[in-house]
C-alpha cells in the first residue's frame, strides 16, 4: 500500500513538473510566435484587439520589402564577416591561453589566471572611452578592426570555460604524446583540440551569437551605411513618429534565423560543453 502511494505521489509530482515546464515553454515561445505572425501581417492587423495570431492573408512580400528599403544583403555580409572573424579569433586565442593555464607548468601560472578572472568584474562602460580613444588614434574607426581585433586577444570567460574543460582531460595523454615526440604545440593540436570539441563548440556558439547580435559596438565605430550590420539596420525601421512593425518583425526574423539554426545544429555540443566544464575546479 505504501509502495503504491509512493508511485502515485511521484506521478503527481512529475505531472505537476511537466505542467510547469510546459507553461514556461509557452511563455518563452509566445513572443517568437508573435514576431513571426506579425511579419506576415498587413499593417492594419498588427495591433488588432483581440490579437490575430494567424493572418487573413500571408504577406510574404513583407520580407521582399525589407530588402527593397535597405541594403540588407550588404548588412548580412558585414555581420557574417564580423561574427566569423570574432568567433575564429576567440577560439584561437582563448584555446591557446586555456591550454597554457591548464596543461603547462610555469611560475606564476595561478596568479595569471586569477588576474584574468578579476577582469570579469570590470564593467564594460569603464573601458569604453579609453578603448575608443585608442581606436581613434589608430584610425580604425569606420572599419571592422575595432570589432574584430580585440577577439584575437582572448577573454576571461571563454578562457575560464575552456580551462575547466581541458583540466578534465587525463594528463596521461600528454605524457604519451611526449613519448611519441610531440612538442607542447603538438599536444595542443593533436590531443587537446580534438578532445575539446564540446567546449570549443560552446565558446564558438556564444561568441558567434554575441558578435551577431552586437549593437553597441557597430553603433560606435561604424559610420558608413555600407559597413553597417543587421542590428543597426533594424533600428532604421523605428521612426520618431511611426514604426512599420510588420517590416520590423520581418527584419527581426531574418536576423534571428541564423542564430536559431546555429543553436539547433550545435545544441548537443553546447549542452555537453556547459555540463562538463562545471564539474572540476
Quick rundown:
The protein has 281 residues and is mostly helical. It has helices spanning 2-39, 61-69, 72-103, 109-118, 124-137, 145-148, 156-166, 172-179, 184-195, 197-212, 216-221, 230-235, 245-265, 267-277.
Describe what you observe in this structure:
This protein has helices at residues 2-39, 61-69, 72-103, 109-118, 124-137, 145-148, 156-166, 172-179, 184-195, 197-212, 216-221, 230-235, 245-265, 267-277. The protein is globular, with a radius of gyration of 24 Å. The two termini are 45 Å apart. It has two domains: 2-59; 66-277, MetI-like fold, CATH 1.10.3720.10. With 281 residues, the protein is mostly helical. The chain has 14 helices and no strands.
What features would you highlight for this structure?
mainly alpha, 281 residues
Uncertain runs: none
Mean pLDDT: 85
- How many β-strand stretches? 0
Please write the string of helix (H) and strand (E) elements. HHHHHHHHHHHHHH
CATH architecture of the largest domain, by name, is Orthogonal Bundle
Q: Whole-Å distance between the termini?
A: 45 Å
CATH topology name of the largest domain, in short, is: MetI-like fold
Shape: globular
Computed over alpha carbons, the radius of gyration is: 24 Å
DSSP strand (E) fraction?
Answer: under 5%
Taken together, the total number of domains comes to 2
The CATH class of the largest domain, by name, is Mainly Alpha
Q: Structural class of the secondary elements?
A: mainly alpha
Amino acid at each position: 500500500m505504501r509502495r503504491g502511494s509512493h508511485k502515485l505521489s511521484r506521478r503527481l509530482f512529475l505531472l505537476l513538473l511537466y505542467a510547469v515546464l510546459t507553461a514556461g515553454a509557452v511563455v518563452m515561445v509566445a513572443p517568437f510566435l508573435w514576431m513571426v505572425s506579425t511579419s506576415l501581417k498587413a499593417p492594419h492587423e498588427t495591433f488588432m484587439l483581440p490579437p490575430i495570431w494567424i493572418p487573413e492573408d500571408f504577406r510574404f512580400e513583407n520580407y521582399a520589402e525589407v530588402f527593397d528599403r535597405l541594403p540588407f544583403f550588404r548588412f548580412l555580409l558585414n555581420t557574417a564577416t564580423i561574427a566569423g572573424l570574432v568567433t575564429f579569433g576567440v577560439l584561437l586565442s582563448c584555446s591557446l591561453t586555456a591550454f597554457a593555464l591548464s596543461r603547462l607548468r610555469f611560475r606564476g601560472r595561478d596568479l595569471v589566471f586569477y588576474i584574468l578572472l578579476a577582469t570579469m568584474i570590470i564593467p564594460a562602460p569603464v573601458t569604453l572611452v579609453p578603448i575608443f580613444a585608442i581606436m581613434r588614434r589608430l584610425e580604425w574607426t569606420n572599419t571592422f578592426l575595432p570589432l574584430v581585433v580585440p577577439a584575437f586577444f582572448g577573454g576571461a570567460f571563454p578562457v575560464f570555460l575552456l580551462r575547466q574543460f581541458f583540466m578534465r582531460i587525463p594528463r596521461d595523454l600528454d605524457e604519451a604524446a611526449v613519448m611519441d615526440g610531440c612538442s607542447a604545440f603538438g599536444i595542443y593540436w593533436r590531443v587537446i583540440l580534438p578532445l575539446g570539441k564540446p567546449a570549443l563548440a560552446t565558446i564558438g556558439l556564444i561568441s558567434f551569437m554575441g558578435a551577431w547580435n552586437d549593437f553597441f559596438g557597430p553603433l560606435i565605430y561604424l559610420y558608413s551605411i555600407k559597413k553597417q550590420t543587421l542590428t543597426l539596420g533594424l533600428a532604421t525601421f523605428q521612426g520618431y513618429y511611426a514604426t512599420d512593425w510588420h517590416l520590423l518583425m520581418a527584419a527581426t526574423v531574418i536576423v534571428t534565423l541564423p542564430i536559431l539554426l546555429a543553436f539547433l545544429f550545435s545544441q548537443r555540443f553546447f549542452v555537453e560543453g556547459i555540463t562538463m566544464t562545471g564539474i572540476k575546479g
